């Protein structure tokens, strides 16, 4: 399964939780900008939800393409925040909630990158089902 989400990729991440003290007790909550980013991601992901959740081991390949502006070249790696692992956590949480798979722990192989890009900006996603056992290479 391969698809492209045509959107400006979010720059907020799932790690941006806030703590409030309510009646003397700390409460962790999700800031509005993170909730909005999740909502937008889910809205773009919905047309690609599989008929039933994928099972077994999966390979996930994701390219985050951010609009380059004048300071960067097309396909130059983006080495500024947000951190790639935090972006990926946000995306995988949304995909889990939408039942792309049973659990994001099924993602056993991952290739992820973030780059500056000319139009279009967005998120390229490919999910491949893998065999239950990893193939051994000759001599190992």
What is the element string, with H for helices and E for strands? Answer: EEEHEHEE
Task: Assign the CATH superfamily.
Answer: Holliday junction resolvase RusA
Rg, please?
A: 17 Å
Give start-end ranges of low-pLDDT stretches: none
Structural class: alpha+beta
Main sheet attributes: strand count, strand direction, barrel closure: 4 strands, mixed
Number of helical elements = 2
What is the CA-CA span between the terminal residues?
A: 31 Å
Do you know the CATH architecture?
A: 2-Layer Sandwich
Mean pLDDT: 91
Query: How many domains make up the coordinates?
Result: 1
Q: Could you give the order of strands across the largest sheet?
A: 1-6-4-5
The percentage of residues in β strands lies in 25-35%
CATH topology: 60s Ribosomal Protein L30, Chain: A
Using the alpha-carbon principal axes, give the shape: globular
At the first level of CATH, what is the class?
A: Alpha Beta
Quick tags:
single chain; 140 residues; alpha+beta; 60s Ribosomal Protein L30, Chain: A
Structure write-up:
The structure is a single chain. The protein has two helices and six strands. With 140 residues, the protein is α+β, with helices and mostly antiparallel strands. The protein has a single domain, classed as 60s Ribosomal Protein L30, Chain: A. The strands form two sheets. A four-stranded mixed sheet has the order 1-6-4-5, with helices on one face. Helix 2 links the parallel strand 4 (58-67) and strand 5. Helix 1 (32-45) packs across helix 2 (84-97). The longest helix is centred in the N-terminal third of the chain and has 14 residues, at 32-45. It starts with a strand and ends in an 11-residue tail after the last strand.
